[in-house]
Amino acid sequence: MFNKILIANRGEIACRVIKTARKMGIGTVAIYSDADKNALHVSMADESVHIGPPPANQSYIVIDKVMDAIRQSGAQAVHPGYGFLSENSKFAEALEAEGVAFVGPPVRAIESMGDKITSKKIAQEAGVSTVPGYMGLIEDAEEAVKISNEVGYPVMIKASAGGGGKGMRIAWNDEEAREGFQSSKNEAANSFGDDRIFIEKFVTQPRHIEIQVLCDSHGNGIYLGERECSIQRRNQKVVEEAPSPFLDEATRKAMGEQAVALAKAVDYASAGTVEFIVDGDKNFYFLEMNTRLQVEHPVTELITGVDLVEQMIRVAAGEKLSITQDDVTLTGWAIENRLYAEDPYRGFLPSIGRLSRYRPPQEIASGPLLVNGKWQGDAPEGEAAVRNDTGVYEGGEISMYYDPMIAKLCTWAPTREAAIEAMRVALDSFEVEGIGHNLPFLSAVMDHPKFVSGEMTTAFIAEEYPEGFEGVELPEADLRRIAASCAAMHRVAEIRRTRVSGRMDNHERKVGSDWVVTLQGQEYAVEIDADRDGSTVTFPDDTAMRVTSDWTPGDHLAVLDVDGSPLVLKVGKISGGFRIRNRGADLKVHVRTTRQAELARMMPEKLPPDTSKMLLCPMPGLIVKIDVEVGQEVQEGQALCTVEAMKMENILRAEKKGVVSKVNAGPGDNLAVDDVIIEFE
Length: 681
What we know:
Elements: E1 4-7, H1 11-23, E2 27-33, H2 40-44, E3 47-52, H3 63-73, E4 77-79, H4 89-98, E5 101-102, H5 107-114, H6 116-125, E6 133-134, H7 141-151, E7 155-159, E8 168-171, H8 174-192, E9 197-201, E10 207-215, E11 221-233, E12 236-242, H9 249-265, E13 270-278, E14 284-290, H10 297-304, H11 308-316, E15 333-340, E16 342-343, E17 349-350, E18 353-354, E19 357-359, E20 370-371, E21 374-375, E22 385-390, E23 397-398, E24 405-413, H12 416-429, E25 431-433, H13 439-447, H14 449-453, H15 460-464, H16 476-498, E26 514-519, E27 522-530, E28 535-538, E29 544-549, E30 557-562, E31 565-574, E32 577-582, E33 585-592, H17 594-602, E34 614-616, E35 621-626, E36 633-634, E37 639-645, E38 648-653, E39 658-663, E40 670-671, E41 676-680
Parallel strand pairs: 1-2, 1-4, 2-3, 4-5
Antiparallel strand pairs: 6-9, 7-8, 7-9, 10-11, 10-13, 11-12, 12-15, 13-14, 15-24, 16-17, 18-23, 19-25, 20-21, 22-24, 26-27, 26-33, 27-28, 28-29, 29-30, 30-31, 31-32, 32-33, 34-41, 35-37, 35-40, 36-39, 37-38, 39-41
């Protein structure tokens, strides 16, 4: 076994690998850029080596710099994580030449599966079900139309070297096939330097389901069930679960056996993932193979008890697999939510800055739960578990240079329903401040009827949130629970205020029992009957709720019991009440006396400022280019300026016709959210 491993990555996956290496008694080496000198993975590792400036193309993906770090540290093996150099065959070759083990598959497997056309041909030869289509080179648009008719519309026109949704078009007729072919070809050439295009049948009602495989260099291979990854935004996975709520045992077995057959066809040795598209009739078709550890691997670990990182290290050290297919048992249900530094209220634009508050929910039985059939960790058998894989900490910064992932929050429970409920509570308990993040959106998904029923497709987000995410309107029953809780909390705060020292004689305050709670446009008059153990809150219709909690004023998180059911609220202070966040809703809750409520109804509503004649910066970013000047008339849809954030250029366009009256920023300016860039007459 190795004595020292270098992790050629950063963030949460580097931390994840370090945890397993430490458990195995293996020393670890972290690499870091200037931007990551104070990163969590650097502090966790036994050693660290600086490799360059913040941009990844000057540090983390420069093979020569990583090789120098390996030589400096004397590492015997390298784990690449995911992204960066994880599927780079030249990196694997460089390690082989240096006599350093690559904790991943052989070079041939990386090369074969890295090209979509080649991988599909190998899959067909291995007996793997593939989407009907044409895998050869397509010369021109007319040939594309001919092939599309032979395959049958709708078709997917895809770049062979593509990824991340680039170079992909759906065509429903001849004209769209012509246009899509040329657009995909141009996009592929610009993005990948490779304009090869292929065409395949577009699967309707598609679900994205992948099989986890594990192989050694001695010819052994197994599959560890599947992961449902259908909830995606712009081809980026957001929520994953294992197993899939859609598959039956026969389909799972067929997909698993075909995945292992494909892996063996390229002499695969390591953990890998074979991705499939599955239609509404459970027909499945090979999509691609990822020759690395997947982001969503924790859900597989939680239901199988197999530490995939440990298995990858053991395989790289030449060991045989210690488990057979008969040893693999899927126990319970696991769900993963990806917490990103992106603002769902602003079209999921990236958000950067300092984490002024970062308090994840308490982990329970972190790591695999079942090992060789025996329960591990803190959670008693049958209860829910929580796991949080992260690479950040409170006070740390989310950089503009890298992927915006903050954490991967996972829950496990004996049933899917229980795992979803555990995730709801975990999301409500997750405190993140200082940046925009997608916690509210994730909470909304966990409550969405389509997700709860398991009847989602890859079009879920596009169909259910076509205009983007605008928050959640809570149902009446939830509003009442929150209203009762806030009334009880307000009473606690009022009692504390009556006990302040130094008050004037004969000015003692008394805390009444009648209050009016307003939230989400609703108003509830309540009466509180308090005792030492809690409060009974009665509504005008004589329904009552019993609220108990150990919350004290100033706590950012309130864990309450309302009529025997748990309720977790994120709490902020506002004038006359609280800012409450729960289940994807962000509420201003005011608790007033009866007289205060009467006066509040007479107050004019404060309207937001009119910004209709301004172009506001939608994210923290750098102005790259201003495309207009003072006095210029602009048309709807015209480009006004370009803002760069997280190394992505965003073109801001005019929403309507107008004349530029003032330009407040220029190229090179760093702007904050809502800074005014351009004003119009």
